[in-house]
Specification:
The structure holds two protein chains of two kinds.
Chain A (H helix, E strand, L loop, with lengths): L3 H4 L2 H8 L12 E7 L4 E10 L2 E10 L2 H14 L4 H16 L6 H7 L15 H15 L6 E2 L2
Parallel strand pairs in A: 1-4
Antiparallel strand pairs in A: 1-2, 2-3
Chain B lengths: L12 H6 L11 H5 L8 E2 L2 E2 L1 E2 L10 H13 L10 H21 L7 E4 L2 H16 L5 E5 L8 H10 L2 E5 L9 H7 L4 E7 L11 H10 L4 E4 L11 H4 L3 E5 L10 E5 L1 H6 L10 E4 L4 E3 L13 H17 L1 H19 L5 E4 L8 E6 L4 H9 L3 E2 L1 E3 L4 H6 L5 E5 L6 H18 L1
Parallel strand pairs in B: 3-15, 5-6, 5-7, 7-8, 8-9
Antiparallel strand pairs in B: 1-2, 4-10, 9-10, 11-12, 13-14, 14-17, 16-17
Helix pairs in contact in B: 3-11, 4-11, 5-6, 12-15, 13-15
Classes of the chains: A alpha+beta, B alpha/beta.
């Protein structure tokens, strides 16, 4: 079923127009760059990680509504989480947008605000837009300095 | 498309054309041409398909589809090998396709027409044979910022092997080649110019004749990427006097996987083979191989037989319609669409060259090209979004990506109207 309203939910439009935590962190101690060669989207994720806790997160870059909203929601979500928790959210989110079965109500509840992004599931060419920020976050968490690609 | 008054299929292009003094060709019957393309009757997301991505790959008329089917149904065997009737028949049809391409480009001889997989392979062939044989460290190759990655990367690979230097001709704000800058780049170290005839990303028609003449005044050979040119205008390689010319079949309403490299015989004779294998040899022992004559020297292995025959059918098709009639139709469509798109709030057309092919690249202040693409797709409208394999050009205009609508012979003003309506929908969602 193809319904644009599933993809461009209000919360997505809102976060794409007014991205939260957009910019640089002066005290960042983790950083990674993500790149989607298909569309040229590029973003940088910066983190302040102390004692295993993501104290702050921010991102910068140019991208479509889906990738911007995803990065905005993501930074909102992982602030204050432990590294392990952030990684877990990443895996849960990635699983939900890439697996065959639709998310259950329980899945959506666990994702909280991120549930709005699961609409990309039926738009295969757009899944990478939604996961770019998350792959970049995972790279930043693992301390990799290299540019992350979605391909 | 309500309220435009131009929503009918039959919006007479002649009416538009009569207001444009440059058009003197007879009216082009687009509705009749559309009947030849079965795919245009299909639906996308339950809506009639509006196909505006012919610059990426054009749809195929029944004449091409049937020609390819006929090969496999009635006339297929390997070429240049069998002594039996079927193989001889296929060989004759295959070689007739070469003759068709020769006449299409007005090349002097059949042996100057090399069948390749596409323009990309054609350029790689020249880079790896001509380039490696005749170019050395410090020699310069001139490209333009308009080039498709396929006319950049093969030369970078050559650079990494030989140490040649790549120089890039800039474009002005309109996306036109800066000819004076080009003239300054031409120097005693320049060994080759490789330039597109029409930009795939923004539609600029380059002054290729002048580019070639200026290079030849200094004895420098020129390769022309003609991918976007051959579907839209008559090309004459002898009149251009280019040294190499490449194009892909699939952009000319023909099959994918087949393309053409034209080269002046004197160059092709001097170049070493590209790939080794069957069909390109005169004799082989383990000590030594004698290569075959042109064009077979560059066609190792079994070629894309049905592809070449399908390409021949595509050439017949566009020639029957008339390339000048096709061009006139597409030009009036381009003007119509440009005017209509210009009324959309926050829309910026990238590429406003005086001489332009029917390619419209644009951005919207309110929405990223990919979001436009997805929303338009919901209405059955297919456009290309992204960097169009021309990232240096995107950088030049300071955009990561654009949306690109490209018009082929089968597009109508109604398609342009659908695009405009779709973009208004984008604005509603993101406004």
């Amino acid at each position: 079923m193809f319904d644009l309203k599933d993809l461009y939910q209000e919360v997505i439009i809102d976060h794409s127009k007014r991205p939260r935590h957009f910019g640089k962190l002066a005290e960042a101690n983790r950083e990674a760059e993500g790149f989607n060669p298909l569309c040229g989207d590029q973003l940088t994720v910066e983190l302040i990680v102390e004692d295993g806790l993501v104290k702050d997160a921010a991102f910068e870059g140019a991208g479509c509504a889906i990738s911007t909203a995803s990065a905005s929601l993501m930074t909102d979500m992982v602030r204050g989480k432990t590294e392990a928790e952030a990684q877990e959210i990443f895996h849960r989110f990635q699983d939900l947008v890439t697996r065959k079965d639709p998310p259950t109500e329980d899945d959506l509840l666990k994702l909280e605000k991120l549930a709005a992004l699961t609409g990309v599931r039926v738009f295969p060419s757009r899944v990478k837009c939604a996961t770019l920020a998350w792959h970049t976050l995972a790279a930043a968490l693992s301390g990799q300095e290299k540019t992350v690609k979605t391909e | 498309m309500a309220g435009t008054g131009l929503a009918d299929w039959g919006t007479p292009m002649t009416q538009l054309a009569s207001t444009m003094k440059t058009l003197q060709t007879p009216p082009f019957d687009v509705l009749r041409a559309r009947e030849d393309f079965p795919i245009l009757k299909t639906m996308a997301h339950g809506k009639p398909l509006v196909f505006l991505d012919s610059a990426a790959s054009a749809q195929k008329p029944r004449q091409v589809i049937e020609a390819v089917a006929h090969v496999y149904e009635a006339e297929y065997a390997n070429v240049h090998r069998g002594v039996y009737e079927l193989s001889e028949k296929t060989t004759a049809t295959f070689e007739n396709s070469r003759e068709k391409v020769r006449a299409f480009l007005n090349a002097r001889e059949n042996r100057e027409i090399i069948f390749v997989r596409g323009a990309t392979e054609g350029i790689n062939l020249v880079a790896q044979t001509y380039g490696r044989r005749f170019l050395k460290e410090g020699d310069e190759i001139i490209l333009s910022v308009l080039e498709h990655h396929s006319n950049i990367v093969p030369w970078q690979m050559l650079r990494d092997m030989t140490g040649v230097v790549l120089r890039v001709v800039p474009v002005n704000e309109a996306g036109e080649i800066e000819v004076e800058a080009y003239e300054k780049l031409l120097n005693t170290r320049t060994r080759l110019v490789a330039m597109t005839q029409i930009s795939n990303a923004i539609g600029t028609i380059t002054p290729i004749q002048k580019i070639i003449r200026l290079a030849h005044e200094k004895g420098i050979p020129v390769l022309v990427d003609g991918c976007q040119a051959v579907p839209h205008q008559k090309v004459d390689v002898q009149a251009l006097d280019c040294d190499f010319y490449v194009f892909s079949g699939h952009k000319l309403y023909g099959p994918s996987g087949i393309g053409v490299l034209y080269g002046k015989a004197e160059h092709l004779e001097a170049m070493p083979p590209y790939q080794g294998g069957g069909d390109m040899i005169r004799s082989v022992t383990f000590e030594k191989t004698d290569y075959g004559p042109l064009p077979h020297k560059f066609e190792a292995g079994t070629p894309h037989i049905a592809g070449a025959i399908g390409l021949s059918a595509a050439i017949d098709y566009v020639e029957a319609l008339g390339l000048s009639a096709i061009k006139a139709h597409e030009q009036s469509l381009l003007h119509y669409a440009t005017e209509r798109l210009s009324t959309i709030e926050g829309l910026r057309i990238i590429g406003t060259a005086a001489e332009k092919s029917s390619i419209l690249s644009f951005t919207l202040a309110a929405a990223h090209p990919h979001d436009m693409g997805t929303i338009l797709d919901g209405d059955g409208i297919a456009i290309r979004t992204g960097h169009h394999c021309a990232q240096p050009l995107m950088d030049r205009f300071g955009v990561p990506a654009t949306a690109r609508a490209s018009f082929g012979l089968y597009n109508t003003t109604k398609d342009a109207d659908a695009l405009v309506a779709g973009l208004h929908k984008v604005l509603e969602m993101f406004g």
